[in-house]
Amino acid sequence: MIGTFEQVYLSVIIDPTEAEPGVTMHQELHPSALFSFAGNLIPFPDHNQSPRNVYQCQMGKQTMGIPVHAWHARCDNKMYRLQFPQKPLLKPEAYDIYKMDDYPLGTNACVAVISYTGYDMEDAMTINKSSYERGFGHGTVIKVEVVDLMEGIRFATKENRKTFARDNNDITIREFIGEDGLPYQGKLYKKDDPIYSYREEENKEYKIKKFKYVESAICGYIRIVESGADLGKTMIESMAGKAAATHGEYYDASPFVFNEKNTAINHFGELLQKAGYNYYGEEVLYSGITGEEMKVQIFFGIVYYQRLRHMIADKFQVRGTGPVDPATLQPVKGRKKGGGIRFGEMERDSLIAHGVAFCLQDRLLISSDLDSCKVCGNCGSILTVTRNFRSEDSFNTFRETCKSCPKKDQKIYHMQVPRVFCYLAAELAAMNIRVITEVKPPI
Ligand SMILES: [Zn+2]
């Protein structure tokens, strides 16, 4: 094991031909050791812009695929499973070494590169309806629900133990819970359906627990445990994938196979031409809406697509009004709490740059923590003005005065401020710092 600080002082070679006697100290076990596990699975990484490779190294870990084979024995909180995985037509050398065919994580998709309806803008794409209906990208989310009947019990005795059981006098739950008190395997459960029940010996009562998720789910395995996309050089992949499909073979997508003299485009172009296709992988397509022939040649090929496990339903965030922070009266943050998305300094700067002062005032004051306060015209304090009621019976007649100024000829102004400003003044006062506000009556 070589430490990271040690590494800089070592002479490590990749290929034996690079060896210098007396200088070379180590050699990589395999040239591919230059890349990480995730990096080794990228097809033609040497043809990509480097951020794309870094990005793919992150994404490869977030795809739906076949992560394990012991589905029934696992108790991971959440697992994702791709329903119809395929092996890629283009495999880097490492793909077989890592036995990735046992853990496939994508589908070969026929992709046309064209801007068509506008629904394909940015990184979006329009997908073929029947391909979706035949299961393209379909996946399953597997959640494990752990029920601990020993919770709160130190030693189980005949008197205090809890056991899975069903109250046979209650006919309504028979549809959902079996005789053993457990859910039926393979049954679809909806929100608030009874899912399991147990008997408490202590009070001889049956407790029924309900299914608490909004999205319905099918009950899978039950185990009882006793106590205890984007386009970089996807272009080459697309062409090569198409060539592989037409010739019925799997092609190598390892890095550093092609170079300036022997380019990938030429290699796969020739293969495509041999199969009767256009050299650059372009094809004539017809509009699916009108049936008309499109007037441009469209780049069309096969790309290995990965379905990521990020779902819009888990991410979207929207808020009109909602919870506010009790101290500052500003909207709270966080999707879970029904909060807003921060309008930060950079956003503020853009509005300033656009010169939209009223919009800025609306975002940062009116729609946020608008509050009013009283300012003493004499000393400029916003903390010392208090209300003095004329009599104890009437709260309608009062005079506002500044506690720290002489009673005579006081001028009190009402001012609109962000609530945090009052908060700031109070916090500073606690540290012996006085905030003076200069107020002029409006002209
Ligand atoms: Zn004052």
Automatic annotation (TrEMBL):
Pfam families: RNA_pol_Rpb2_6, RNA_pol_Rpb2_7. One of its GO terms (cellular component) is DNA-directed RNA polymerase complex. Keywords: DNA-directed RNA polymerase, Nucleotidyltransferase, Transcription, Transferase. The keyword Transcription applies. One of its GO terms (biological process) is DNA-templated transcription. Signal peptide: none annotated. The keyword Transcription applies. Residues 40-205, 234-337 form the DNA-directed RNA polymerase subunit 2 hybrid-binding domain. It comes from the Eukaryota. Its EC number is 2.7.7.6. Residues 339-436 form the RNA polymerase Rpb2 domain. InterPro entries: DNA-dir_RNA_pol_su2, DNA-dir_RNAP_su2_dom, DNA-dir_RNAP_su2_hyb_sf, RNA_pol_Rpb2_7. One of its GO terms (molecular function) is DNA binding. Belongs to the RNA polymerase beta chain family. This is DNA-directed RNA polymerase.
